[in-house]
Structure formats: C-alpha cells, structure tokens
Design a protein that fits this description.
With about 500 residues, this protein is α+β, with helices and mostly antiparallel strands. It contains eleven helices and ten strands. The protein has a domain at about 1-65 and about 150-305 and about 375-475: Outer membrane efflux proteins (OEP) (Up-down Bundle), CATH 1.20.1600.10. The strands form three sheets. The chain has a six-stranded antiparallel sheet with strand order 2-3-4-5-8-9, with no helix packed on it. Strand 3 and strand 4 (about 105-115) form a beta hairpin. The chain starts with a helix and ends in a 5-residue tail after the last strand.
C-alpha cells in the first residue's frame, strides 16, 4: 500500500509540476504575425496611411499651382466700332508674354488698328505692327515679388508636409503597437490560464483517486473541484479579453482595396513578449539633443518660420520705390531688326512711384517680425519640452526594464515555492489549501509580469514615437500569406 501511494504521489508531482515549466502547444495550423509584418500591413493599407500619402500629391499640386504664375501666356483680341454707318476703327491684336524669375517680363506680338477715327498714337500701318519688348522692375519686385514668394512658400510647405507625414506615421504605428502589445499580453494570459486549468484538472483527478482509496478526505476533493471551476471562470474571462484585443488589432488592418480585415483564427502574435521587448529598442547611447534638433516636429516649426521670413522679405521689398522700365522694339515685318538701337522704331518708358509714409508697409513688417519672434520662441520652447519628454521616457523605460526583470525573478521564485509545496503535499506533508495559495500567488505574479510587460511595451513604443523612429525602428516584412480575412461591406 505504501509503495502504491508513493507511485500515485510521484505521478501527481510529474503531472502538476512539469506543465509549469512548459508552454502549452499551439494549434498545428497556427501562424505567427510578427510586429514587422503587422506594421507592413498597417503602413501599406490603413486609411490614415493612405490619407497621409495623398498629402504628397497636395503639396506637389501646390508647387505646380505656384509655378503657374510663371507660365507663358498667349492671347488674341479682335474688335471694332461702327456708328451710323461710319466705321470708326477695327483692331486686332495677338501677343505672347513670358514671365521670368526676377520680375522681368518678355513680350512679343502684333497689333493692327485701322479706321477713320483712330487716335494717331494708336494707329498702325495697314499691314500691322510687330513688336518685341521687355519690362523690368528696377526697384520693388525685382529680387522678390508675389509669384516668387508663392513658389518659395509652396516649396517650404512641401517640407512641412514631409515632417507632418513622419509624425502622422509615427502616431499611427504607436496606436497600432499598443493594440499589438495588448494582443500579446492577452494571448499569453490565456495560455497561462490554459496551463493552470490543466494543472487544476490533473490535481482534481489525483485527489479523486486518493479520496476513493481513503487516503484523502472528501473536503479536499471539493476544494480541488472549486479550484477547477475558478480556473474555468478565469480562462473564459481571458478568452473574452483575447477576443477584444484581437479585434483591436484588426482595427488597424485593411486590404489593398480599402476593405477592413479581421484576423484569421490561425494567426497568433509573437510568442514571447520578453524577447520582443529585448530586441525592440536599444536606448543606450541615444544623443537626445541631436535627435531633438533633427526631429520632424522641429523641421515643421523651422519651416513655419521660413515661410514667415519669405513674407517679411516681400514686405521689406515693398518699401523700395516702384521703378518700372518698359521697352518695345517695333517693326512692320515679322523679322528681327538689323539695328536694335534705331531710335525711330521703339516704344520706351520709365514709371516711378514712391509712397511718402510707408505706413502700410511698415505696419506689415512690424506685424510679421513679431510673428517670427513668436515662432522662434515656440521653437525654442518645443525643443526644450521635447528634450525633457524624451529624456523622461528613456529614464522611464530603463526603470520599467529593471522592474520587469525583478518581476520575472519574483514569478520564478513563486514557481519554485509552488513546486516545493506540491511536492510536500504529494507526500502528505502539506495541505491542498497551501498548494492553492502558492498557485494563486504564482498566477498573480505572472499576471503582474504580463501587465508590467504590456506597460513596458507601451513605454518603449511611446519613446520610439517621441523619437520619430517608428518607420525605421523595425524593418518591414511582408505579412504571412494566410493573412487576415476581409469583411465584405457595402460601399
């Protein structure tokens, strides 16, 4: 009888203790979706990512629109006046104008104005009059003018767009990473309760045998049965939590046709949160000051300042006198004149306009100068704020990593205590109550480890987002062919 009891005790010890050091096997058809594969799907097809990519087209279209101010223009006019049967004049005009960068405008064309009542200064020979000329702003408008300013600002806006894109991608991947981290934690939590349920059921089977043999009181069978029911309840709660976290991950998954996806049951996250955390972000040696200096947020703010500086330059240019020189070379034939300096066939003029008080211009300059100073102060404040934010995040990550390691050690110690208590109980030197107490402590430690791991995951994700490194932190990988399954929606 003693030999038989020892064999039962040994069987129970093996059945209970071995699963504590091994994960339950997954489904044979399970396929892992790694973080990199997940991010590849998010960046490729998520509606926000698609919107962000369209910002490039908008910025390029704005530059194209600004360049339109330099487009050559061709025109043609035809008109005349007849009154009481008398033809006063008939006028035809065709022309080409070519704006250039420095406010200079080239013109060429043909005028034909004839009739009995035409202003002599406007009348042309019967065959028409050809001209080619140039208009040069010698004062205001030469170094910068409205069309030049608009093109410069459109190019600056493209820099702003690129910075905004990086920030938008990082924000999207940060939110997506939160969902993925919670998915890992929920998946491991269910694995833990699967393992604990299996342990509880094995323990109940062993106790029932011992009760039947009279080696254990009925009360121990009842206690073991209650533990099984509790583990079933905890497992069901963990299943619901996993379903919710899986759906949260699915929120970030879309196909190439713009249809939302739901994760196939065969897809599971990376198995070990610990391993993912270890390789995801190395914070040692980060030059925070240099990182902040090159941060897209600072690029955006510097671009705003540059945009205002273009406006200031335009306003300062407006203080200069407006001096415009116009010259046209005339010819009755559509040929290049042999003597461009012939004063007999030309139209030339010079116009000068000088504001007396410049109050409009001075007011505009003062306003834009104050705006630039505000933007510069905002840039300085944001740089300092971002430096402190990233420094604090790095320190928090370092502290959480230490806490995570300590928590792992605590969980391992609880596991050792549980194994020891089960060994004592199997030889009749302990009670099922103490075994359950040890197991509850072990479960609590493991749940705390998973919660702390998810918190550490999120802290690292936020650090990567603050550093604006999300797009480059994890090399993209193509998602598994099994893939998420599309949900058909009416469009």
């Amino acid at each position: 009888m003693i030999r038989k009891n020892k064999l039962i005790a040994l069987w129970m010890w093996l059945a209970i203790c071995l699963p504590l050091s091994a994960q339950l096997p997954g489904s044979e058809n399970s396929q892992v979706m790694t973080v990199a594969q997940y991010f590849d799907l998010v960046l490729s097809n998520h509606p926000i990512a698609q919107q962000v990519r369209l910002d490039n087209k908008i910025a390029q279209a704005a530059i194209l629109k600004a360049r339109g101010a330099f487009d050559p223009k061709v025109g043609w006019k035809d008109g005349g006046k007849t009154l009481s049967g008398v033809s006063y004049y008939e006028a035809q005009s065709s022309y080409l104008t070519v704006p250039t960068w420095f406010g200079i405008e080239l013109t060429a064309g043909r005028d034909q104005i004839t009739g009995t009542n035409v202003d002599p200064s406007q009348k042309t020979p019967d065959q028409g009059l050809y001209y080619a000329g140039i208009s040069i702003p010698l004062g205001a408008g030469f170094w910068i003018n409205e069309r030049m300013a608009e093109l410069k600002k459109a190019k600056i806006a493209q820099t702003q767009t690129q910075a905004e894109q990086v920030l938008a991608y990082n924000e999207l991947l940060f939110r997506a990473s939160q969902a993925y981290g919670n998915w890992i934690a929920a998946h491991q939590k269910l694995n833990l309760y699967d393992q604990m349920q299996a342990n509880a059921e094995l323990r109940l089977a062993g106790v029932q045998q011992q009760v039947l043999q009279g080696d254990k009181p009925e009360i121990e069978r009842l206690e073991a049965s209650i533990v099984v029911q509790n583990r079933n309840l905890q497992r069901e709660q963990a299943k619901i939590e996993l379903i919710k976290k899986t759906l949260e991950v699915s929120n970030f998954l879309w196909d190439e046709q713009g249809r939302p996806l739901v994760l196939a049951p065969e897809l599971i996250p990376e198995d070990s949160l610990d391993e993912v955390l270890e390789r995801w972000l190395v914070i040692e040696g980060i030059d925070v000051a240099q990182t902040v200096l090159n941060h897209p947020k600072m690029d955006y703010l510097r671009a705003k300042i540059a945009e205002s500086q273009v406006d200031r330059k335009l306003l300062r240019d407006a203080i200069k006198p407006q001096v415009n020189f116009n010259y046209q070379r005339l010819s009755t034939e559509a040929v290049v004149p042999q003597n461009w300096m012939d004063n007999n066939n030309q139209v030339a003029g010079l116009t000068v306009q000088i504001p007396l008080l410049w109050r409009k211009e001075r007011g505009g300059i003062q306003s834009i100068q104050a705006k630039i100073e505000q933007q510069q102060w905002n840039l300085a404040y944001t740089q300092q704020e971002w430096t402190n934010e990233i420094t604090g995040q790095i320190q928090q990550v370092a502290s959480l990593e230490t806490q995570f390691e300590l928590n792992q050690a605590i969980a391992e110690d609880y596991k050792t205590l549980l194994n020891a208590e089960q060994t004592k109980w199997s030889y009749g030197e302990s009670s099922l109550f103490l075994v359950n107490t040890r197991e509850n402590s072990y479960i609590d430690a493991q749940i705390n480890r998973l919660s702390l791991g998810a918190f550490l995951w999120e802290a690292k994700a936020k650090t990567i987002k603050d550093l604006a490194w999300f797009v480059t932190a994890i090399p993209p990988q193509k998602a598994p062919l099994l893939g998420p399954q599309p949900i058909e929606l009416d469009r």
